[in-house]
Design brief:
about 300 residues, Phosphorylase Kinase, domain 1, six-stranded antiparallel beta sheet, ATP binding, Prot_kinase_dom, nucleotide-binding, Protein kinase domain-containing protein, protein serine/threonine kinase activity
């Protein structure tokens, strides 16, 4: 037997929901998923390895199936929003959604949402915390180039991620650092879309910031206080600046970064300083421009 523990109401009531090992799920796309071993339990979800079969019966290999374990309205809305956004995206550096649905589990027959997605192994926050050291400069920059390429695809679709941080960048494995993808689109939104009244945007009731507080742009911080404050695609570029600095130095930039910490003796510092400008007009304007600038730095190292 397998099981997940879910929190079913804001008061903290939890339930242990058991189900047969090898449970089969059929998603919205017609794909079928046979659950295997438990991979990890995170803040909001429980993830299992699964065998994926296409609607025509073709075996498509392994993927991950995530069950939402926090069943309050806010997290259910964010989970549904993530599926909505991912269904509009297709990029090698963005997690792929193979299907989704809801399933009733346990003796209480509790309705639990789930999503099947790309299988990844290592998030970069976890990796740096375990190794207590930054990435080497070339790996840090190359990783950010791929993040830029993913964000450029989002911005081409008029989508803002709003939650860029090391924990949301995944390596396929520790050995395969070239194959990375961006995850967690729960608070992503379309440019110009007003989500201020949706539960996905409700953070005060959970006593948490709408995105990553240590990786927030000035616009996101202002938005957390006043939902009429504008936030556009340049907010994501600020967060990439924080990500780049963190990967290269293993430190979160607070204000202007320290040049002496730059392992490239200047180039990363100069890029990060531009990206972390308080005024969005002073930042590198697009993810495509940033990707080009970072590629030029790598060529000199």
């Amino acid at each position: 037997m397998s099981f997940i523990i879910v929190r079913i109401d804001p008061s903290g009531t939890t339930k242990k929901l058991s189900f047969a090992y090898g449970l089969e799920l059929e998603g919205s796309t017609g794909h079928r998923f046979k659950l295997g071993k438990h991979i990890r339990t995170g803040g909001n979800g429980v993830v299992f390895e699964a065998e994926c079969t296409a609607p025509d019966g073709t075996e498509e290999g392994l993927c991950a199936v995530k069950f939402l374990k926090e069943l309050d309205d806010v997290r259910q809305d964010r989970f549904a929003n993530e599926i909505r956004i991912l269904n509009d995206l297709s990029h090698p550096n963005i997690v792929k959604c193979f299907g989704s649905g809801r399933v009733r589990l346990g003796e209480e027959n509790i309705d639990v949402p789930w999503m099947a997605m790309s299988l990844g192994d290592v998030n970069l926050r976890q990796y740096l915390d375990e190794h207590k050291a930054p990435l080497d400069a070339i790996t840090a920059i190359n990783t950010c180039i791929k993040v830029c390429n993913a964000i450029a695809h989002l911005h081409d679709k008029s989508i803002i991620h709003r939650d860029l941080k090391p924990a949301n960048v995944i390596w396929l494995t520790d050995e395969d650092r070239d194959n990375i993808f961006l995850v967690d689109f729960g608070i992503a939104k379309y440019v110009g879309e007003d989500v201020s009244a949706r539960r996905m945007d409700d953070f005060t009731s959970l006593h948490q910031f709408v995105g990553p507080a240590n990786f927030a742009s000035p616009e996101l911080l202002a938005y957390s206080r006043d939902k009429s404050h504008p936030v556009d695609t340049r907010s994501d570029l600020f967060q990439i600046g924080l990500l780049l600095w963190f990967l290269a130095t293993n430190r979160i930039a607070a204000g202007i970064p320290s040049r002496r910490l730059d392992p490239t003796n200047g180039p990363i510092f100069e890029i990060a300083t531009q990206l972390l400008a308080m005024d969005p007009d002073d930042r590198i304007p697009t993810a495509g421009d940033l990707s080009k600038r970072l590629s030029e730095i790598v060529a000199t190292l």
